[in-house]
Design a protein that fits this description.
7-stranded mixed beta sheet, 4-stranded antiparallel beta sheet, transmembrane (chains A, B), alpha/beta, homodimer
Chain lengths: 578, 578
Amino acid sequence: MEVTRRNYKDSLNTVYSAIEEADFLAIDGEFSGISDGPNVSALTNGLDTPEERYTKLKKHSMDFLLFQFGLCTFKYDQTKSKYIIKPFNFYVFPKPFNRTSPDIKFICQSSSIDFLASQGFDFNKVFCNGIPYLNQEEEAQLREQTEERRNQHANALLSKCHTYTGFVFFVFFLIYIFFPHLYLYVYFLTRFQRKLIYQTLNWKGFTWKPLKQKSKVDDEERKRREQQKLEREQEELNDAVGFSRVIHAISKSGKLVVGHNMLLDVMHTIHQFYCPLPEMGVGLFFFFFFLMFQEMITNTSLAELEKQLKEGPFKSPQVETAEGFHSYDTAQEQLHEAGYDAYITGLCFVSMANYLGSFLTPPKAYISARSKLVEPFFNKLFLMRIIDIPYLNITGPDLQPKRDHVLYVTFPKEWKTSDLYQLFSAFGNIQVSWIDDTSAFVSLSQTDQVQIAMNTSRYAESYRIQTYAEYIQGKQQDKEKLGQTAKTWGDDGWVKSHYTSSTTSGRLSPIPDEEEEEEESSEGTNPANDAEGTVTWQQATRKGQKNKKKKSKGVFVSLLTLLNLPETVQTVTWCSFL
Amino acid sequence: MEVTRRNYKDSLNTVYSAIEEADFLAIDGEFSGISDGPNVSALTNGLDTPEERYTKLKKHSMDFLLFQFGLCTFKYDQTKSKYIIKPFNFYVFPKPFNRTSPDIKFICQSSSIDFLASQGFDFNKVFCNGIPYLNQEEEAQLREQTEERRNQHANALLSKCHTYTGFVFFVFFLIYIFFPHLYLYVYFLTRFQRKLIYQTLNWKGFTWKPLKQKSKVDDEERKRREQQKLEREQEELNDAVGFSRVIHAISKSGKLVVGHNMLLDVMHTIHQFYCPLPEMGVGLFFFFFFLMFQEMITNTSLAELEKQLKEGPFKSPQVETAEGFHSYDTAQEQLHEAGYDAYITGLCFVSMANYLGSFLTPPKAYISARSKLVEPFFNKLFLMRIIDIPYLNITGPDLQPKRDHVLYVTFPKEWKTSDLYQLFSAFGNIQVSWIDDTSAFVSLSQTDQVQIAMNTSRYAESYRIQTYAEYIQGKQQDKEKLGQTAKTWGDDGWVKSHYTSSTTSGRLSPIPDEEEEEEESSEGTNPANDAEGTVTWQQATRKGQKNKKKKSKGVFVSLLTLLNLPETVQTVTWCSFL
């Protein structure tokens, strides 16, 4: 289903119910560009640490626009033994809400735009009919503005009232001072005489109506109008929050979200529809290692993956498009339409999950998205093109790979790859990963050659070689120095989360008969339980600094709290299968 | 005529001939945004100097994309007594030429995009079918790359040939050393024996054909192929230069170019299709004052202007759309389509020019675009929203307006406009022009109040007041200091122009009977005549620094040389009429 500004409001309930009934969701995004700085090979260096990769993407990718968001919901139908799918294709554009609302600027990269154009992307749907959105901060600001305007209006009325009352009292005071006997006279006026006075006073613009009558009719009318106005304002606000409401619904649903190479999708989703991305401090991410099927699938492009997962030992999953939804045909590839990509992503996930079932005794043909078998892959974001760290782990420590065969080399900027090959020609095959114009990682094929290379370089003037360990240590020291000089770490523009961390842990629970172990593991990954329910980034960081043992806990919970992902949205990259 | 990548090559000759035959050209551009920094009111402060305005636009507007270029050519038909027009609407997009060509990033401003969308703008025509373009530097780089590749290919062939020849000589040398008698033997071999040897040598992969026969056929074929390849390369290069060729044609035509609020259009055109914009140094622009019709037309929006110029004392001009071109109907407004805006702009110019004719004795109903009457308006770029400087003069000194009623006020950033009104409440009506959060210009209604205001503020702590003269002096001093510390002024990334300044001055000559005076004036505005024919920015600047008297000359010529506009494209803003 194509969703633009035109049919967004009418489609919202369909989207909500699709999310609510789904077993899992697949997502995909299309962006206006990838990198506003380094080229793709520098952006995705093969020896990046997850922190480096995250920091680079945050710095160089977040000014682009996620302008098409694909969502495909998968619901398993037991009677038909197949998944019923509902694909959505949202076109998103930051249309300014009013004159005072933020006028978003975003970058377009001509190569990315040209690529999408060659795939038949409809830019008019984005720019002319894209659904608006607001992040938390903008939403809060807008609500505040509306509130303020309402108060100002009330205050203006009040002050008008005060001025008026003051004036009347002043006049009566003057009359009392100069013509005290008038009061007695007015008091004894006949009904007719009073009416005459009222009429006379009309010249001043006073509508001198009997008070009781006025208040009755006006009050009701006023209340009705105020109620209407309030409702209208609320609706306008909701319209402005726009597509972010879909993301909130996904977040609140607690459903499993599946993506392909989804680090950038997740980052854009948070950045655009939630809040600015946090800086990654030391120890904010830890790495561990999980590998499967790597030998079986070598090409990770979505199209290739889909083809391979149709063949043995995998099985092509049975799916059916729900009534009223556009039925995709995998024979007619519509790759790089976000909705189609999300659909294919979901299919791949089902194939992979079902394959896991073949290892059980007796083998199972259908494995649910909530199965314990899939659980090890939760909250792992695949890291594209990193040689030895397949994914970034959101909820736990990650692998620190052995990189003792890697050298960090700095050299004059005139050097090219061939110079490095020549320099290390004595050490057999090498692999060069460029960092920037004057530095690169060089991986030797044999670790025992490292010391020899180090010794050889001792007297070199034009270049310098460090082991990977020395390089990491140096970076660490630089960071600590930086930390000592700039103490404002906690105040770096990071927005305090408005969302509270739900304390009902394990909303995404595994299949019932395996619940016991889950209890333990969910506690292990969710220290929000022993916090106050709301853990902000700063609190978590401070906590982490106070108690080294609890550091990892505090930190990753804070991140999840910010994303409102802690137990609600569990993110899986099936790419970590690879 | 709509021109996209699809019909660009076929339309090029039509465009060229339309430009060639035209009396004058009207242009207009549509952009992906206006400002990536300050809001529009700060970007167009009412008391900007032309230099400040230019610098601000250069800093905050050049990262947007000019993606629709409107060109309307006007040719006067004596027999019909009306203009024949040819409107073009070019869609422009920096589609990367190949993998190594620059991957342009540009900003989009959501309010601008939303505005264009509301006007029915077709973004698919830009992003899917926009004509590519290259500026001079990119073009030169691409030509260099192609040349290099060709040389590399030739070198590779040559080195292959050297290696081969070397090997053959080495073999013959060995034979000569070890079996000298073999030579005599070969010398006396029969034809049949030789053939046998040739065949035997075939096992080594040598295709041992009679030399003469081979060279004849291969040489012709090789030449033909090389020629074909060269032509193909040349065509690919021309395709890559793309829309810039239209701009080059306009520039070379020497035709009068008319625009509406065209400062931004001119800057974008130069920046996108020629070269990076120069920095404005001290004294690079001078200001003088020319005012006309100001009381007659108050609203300068294009739609309003067009309406007013249909009524008395102006006359609606007679125009006819050339055959095969889309005929615009001014009743059905298509404003903010660049081609239509260019068309309306041209109409307005004709109305205004003809109005000038009504002052002649006897009055003339038709005034040519080359008339002496229009000449005072040449090379004046209208400055939007500046109170007392209507335009930026490209070819001469500009007005330095009397601003002795203006105060420069600095204050805490909590201050709002109301605080300034309160502060100056004793001095009657004021006008506030914000500069940034902590400073603004305050114009008093009476100049004699300035000294009183200055005296009053002497002991103030929270704010500070300077006269406009003091403010300008301070800025000047700051700049001089900066100039002393940073001596790299001439090397600030400015690209040396590849274009030579044509020495045939006055290509845009006035009507014949007024030619004598023109000779003088064109000399006055074209010191390239006494230079070497090619004046670069640096040369001009150095010249300006050496000879203070010649400064203004050197400077504006250099600018024009860079734009390749000096005598070729004469730019008029009819807005300076206002």
